[in-house]
Design a protein that fits this description.
Length: 153
């Protein structure tokens, strides 16, 4: 066997180093997955208000977004969609929910029964996912508000 010249070793070392760096970079980009930000994790509302369950996400490609509602009565799927496509809204929330491409949803004319935990899951096409929870408290109008409404009528 002939020994390699110094120039060739250096050349192969640079090539292998570049290849290793490229593979490492590619793995890091893929492993970043989904990030999810929830600016307000608790929302207090009164009956008949429209409320926004606000989230922001970042990921590679177009994700699937799913919202579920959890209360003392169990877990119920509200909606699932891919941004830019039509949402699959459950029968229980037809005409009561609006979706946004950033992953947020709006609930229209909430009632006390809407109080509970709202869990959003963002899943990218490679399977990486992230979830977050928003707690919603819906209360009846306060006695003060009822008195003001009576005076105005």
């Amino acid at each position: 066997m002939r020994p390699l010249r110094t120039g060739q070793r250096k050349h192969h070392g640079v090539s292998l180093g570049f290849l290793a760096l490229s593979l490492t970079t590619a793995c890091c980009l893929q492993s970043q997955g989904v990030s999810l930000y929830i600016p307000q994790s608790t929302i207090n509302a009164t009956v008949k208000e429209d409320i926004l369950l606000s989230v922001e996400y970042s990921c590679h490609g177009v994700p699937t977004i799913e919202w579920k509602y959890t209360s003392n009565w169990g877990v119920q799927k509200i909606v699932e969609w891919k941004p830019g496509a039509q949402a699959n809204i459950s029968q229980s929330h037809k005409d009561r929910v609006g979706t946004f491409d950033n992953g947020s949803i709006q609930l229209f004319s909430v009632g006390v029964r809407d109080s509970g935990y709202y869990v959003v899951t963002v899943t990218e096409h490679l399977g990486s996912s992230q979830f977050g929870t928003i707690v919603l408290h819906v209360s009846e109008n306060t006695a003060e508000e009822i008195e003001l409404q009576d005076v105005e009528c």
